[in-house]
Amino acid sequence: MRLDLENLPTDTAVLHQLVRDMAGFVGERDGEIERLKAIVKQLQRAQFGRRSERLDPDQLALALEDVEADLAGAEARRPAILQAPEKAQPKRKPLPDHLPREDLRLDIDSEVCACGGVLHGIGESVSEMLDWVPAQLRVIRIVRPKYACRACETVVQAPAPERPIAGGLATPGLLAQVLVSKYCDHTPLYRQSKIFARHGIDLDRSTLAGWVGGACWWLEALHERLSANLFASPHLFADDTPIPVLDPGRGRTKTGRLWVYARDDRPWSGPDPPGAVYIYAPDRRGERPAAHLARFKGVLQVDGYAGFEALTASGDVKLAACWAHARRKFYEIAEATGAPVAVEALRRIGELYAIEAQVRGQSAALRKAARLESSRPLVDALHTWLERQLARVPPRGALADAIRYALGRWEALCLFLHDGRIDLDNNPVERAIRPVALGRKNHLFAGSDGGGARWAVVCSLIETAKMNGVEPYAYLRDVLERMVDGHPINRLDQLLPWAWKRGNHVKT
Q: How is residue 93 annotated by DSSP?
């Protein structure tokens, strides 16, 4: 807006309107500048900065590293009894009992003392050191003697054992190692090929890729059982993440999606074991989660993706929103500009997380009662405060966008107050996505849509095993051995990670 100072109007009302227009223009301009600065800061942080959502203690008294740590600030405001600090003594954790031990006995040269007397034992000192035994490749020779009958000239021989890969060399143990290295330790197949070469074994990347496909053929049925088990739950977390997929027809990669659905009832001591299932899709259309969750009935905790809204049409699904996503928008503004409104929003949300820390692990009924008593007044006050601040901040600024994001999902954000099974955020599924993000950096891309589907199958079993405290290699090796040996298809539920752990199906 350009102002001609020589031809200003003389009417007072017109001048007042002109000043109001100028003030509005300046407000819009400042809001746009603030929004662009926030975008620049966010891009700089994504490219060069740390990923944890920690604020400078001078900006926020809650010195937070992530959402769950918001409780630290609230606890810090409580009166405490100061005690003289004790001198910390370094303590080393004992080595696990399940590791094999090898004794190295160091004895004296003579049982005669320097004075001529006879030495007698009074005890011993024992210390331990941790050793590493490198991986060893071995060849299993399958010998099948032949027998012949002189009377009828019949030849008798034991049948050849089933191999996990038809005509292949890999045992279930080697297949499990390749799968865990790729999908759990994020070692691409071409790097694994080089590792095998150092051991004197020439295995091309294409050979390893064939092994992965063959192993997934056995595991697909188990992935289906895992999916059916999770989708029968009354409460799930859902999200998706992109993965690059090779698109040979265009000579470049395209963007596929891994949809992730997680169950974690541990915060409210629920009966079902934790688990996560990944499903590959070539795009992010809303029909994908609708197809995955066609039989799901219950509460689905999600981020702000609009594609989940269609699930509520039947009335069988309720959407619970994520406070971590609402908080993140205020965090980005506070980190970029230090805006007092954003800092205050973080403080208020932090008080909700402090209450959640006190009820974590309790029953759903107790969590609901505590929330109605302690959290609900804070939530109501936060809603009133956000509406008041929205009328004061520039309407096109990043701060207004953050406030509108929260207010636009307020009903879904407040659903946790009336159901003790619902968490404050979507972090369980966010944690399940992190391994995919690491693998995405190392794998470069999936070779095809089929490769994306195999990625989903193996990640589902590995992540569920980890969530249940099961070592992925031991689990996959034993499962592959059992399936190759003819495990009954109607008893696949026995091979799900939590059931496998209960049955102690570890072969020695």
A: P
